Amino acid sequence: MALKDVSLRVLPKQVVLVIGPSGSGKSTLLRCIDRLEFLTSGEMWIDDDRVTDRSGDIRKIREELGRRLLERVGLGDKAESYPEQLSGAQQQRVAIARAAAERVVFMDNGEIIESEPPSQVFADPQEERTKRFVEHIL
Ligand SMILES: Nc1ncnc2c1ncn2[C@@H]1O[C@H](COP(=O)(O)OP(=O)(O)OP(=O)(O)O)[C@@H](O)[C@H]1O
Ligand SMILES: [Mg+2]
User: Fold this and answer.
1) Ligand 1: which of 3, 17, 27, 39 to mutate, most ligand atoms within 8 Å of CB?
2) b/e for 45-60, b at 16 or more Cβ within 10 A?
3) Which of 21, 31, 121, 125 could disulfide-pair with 36, CB 3.0 to 4.6 Å?
4) pTM
5) pLDDT tens, position by position, for the chain (138 residues)?
6) Closest ligand to 19 CA?
């Protein structure tokens, strides 16, 4: 089992950074959200839509996910643009949409060990495994 008892609630407009050692389950978690991987148990919801099952238009869900991200930084109309068609400032906003994080989720061994604001995780981690990772690996 790649993920164990993972429970994660991401609020509207919240940007989450997922960190953790190699093999801890980061990609698997993202692949589940993007539905490249399917859940063997549990549920997944996006807004009011239950998206746990294989049914539904996967392409449409993926398109909507990407667009919502751009809309957050006011670039929803640039979804079809290539990077060179955007101004420097617009490119930076895309980078912010991809990376500015309000919350850091630290994963290890398929589990979420700690899920807190970046200042807490990086400066004052509560769990021993997070502490070790932040001190020695990052
Ligand atoms: N479909 C799958 N079924 C079972 N195990 C899997 C599956 N996909 C990945 N794994 C295993 O689950 C664990 C988590 O892998 P994953 O690729 O999610 O880690 P990661 O945190 O993204 O690592 P990295 O930092 O190297 O990218 C690994 O032990 C991997 O071998
Ligand atoms: Mg990975």
Assistant:
1) 27
2) eeeeeebbeeeeeeee
3) 31
4) 0.75
5) 789 999 999 988 788 888 889 999 999 998 888 888 888 899 988 888 787 776 667 777 777 777 776 776 667 777 777 777 887 777 766 655 556 778 889 999 999 999 998 878 888 999 999 999 888 876
6) 1
